[in-house]
Amino acid sequence: MKKKIIAFLIAIISGAVAGVLVVTLLLPPKMMLENESRYDFETTLTTVEQSTKAAGWSIPTVHDLQKSMEKAGKEVNQVKVFELCNPEYSIKILAGDEERIYSNMMPCRISVYTKSDGKTYISRLNIPGMTKGMLPEAKSAMKAAYKDMEGILSGIVVD
Q1: Among 7, 94, 109, 120, which one is least packed by beta carbons within 10 Å?
Q2: What is the pLDDT of residue 21?
Q3: How many domains in the chain?
């Protein structure tokens, strides 16, 4: 009887460990990352802009999606999408014929928006979770750009 109980417990524990391994190894990572901002919407916008420029990046465009939706007769909470560019990373993707396939992920984007809870949030692509299978040059550029972007956001988002 005692051996059966021990065998049963070992089977349960083994099954649990196997389940955790399957979930950890086989499920894809989240495509998007989201963090609450430490600031209100307008302060977050200003801080993202200042932090981006201080890091040596440019902001070619800011899309005001709330305004775009208003023009279409739709009402949504505040949403602005920053396009961020750093030519040192861009050239590594745009210069090579094989790497250029990843140009649809450029420029890097950060979305700042409010939710119904009244708080401001920042989202961006989970680049490290998306680089599996990328060509080495593109993977290197994307991961370096991601690291810079996380640095830009480090004082703005709640961990």
Answers
A1: 7
A2: 47
A3: 2
Residues 63 and 134 in one domain: yes
Query: What is the C-alpha R_g of the chain?
Result: 21
Is the Cβ–Cβ distance between 60 and 85 less than 8 Å? yes
Count CA atoms closer than 13 A to 149's CA, side-chain side.
26
How far are the Cα atoms of 45, 57, 133, 159 from residue 54, in angstroms, in the given order?
Answer: 14, 7, 32, 21
Phi, psi angles (nearest 5°) of residue 110: -130, 130
- Same domain flag for 64 and 90: yes
- Could you tell me the sign of the dihedral formed by the alpha carbons of 38, 88, 101, 103, in that order? positive
First to last CA, the chain: 50
Prediction pTM value:
0.80
Specify whether the CB–CB gap between 148 and 86 falls below 8 A. Answer: yes
Domain that holds residue 113: 31-153
Q: What is the band of 132 on the pLDDT scale with cuts at 50, 70, 90?
A: confident
- DSSP class of 16: H
Contacts of 110 (CB under 8 A, 6+ apart): 48, 81, 82, 84, 122, 123, 124, 149, 152, 153
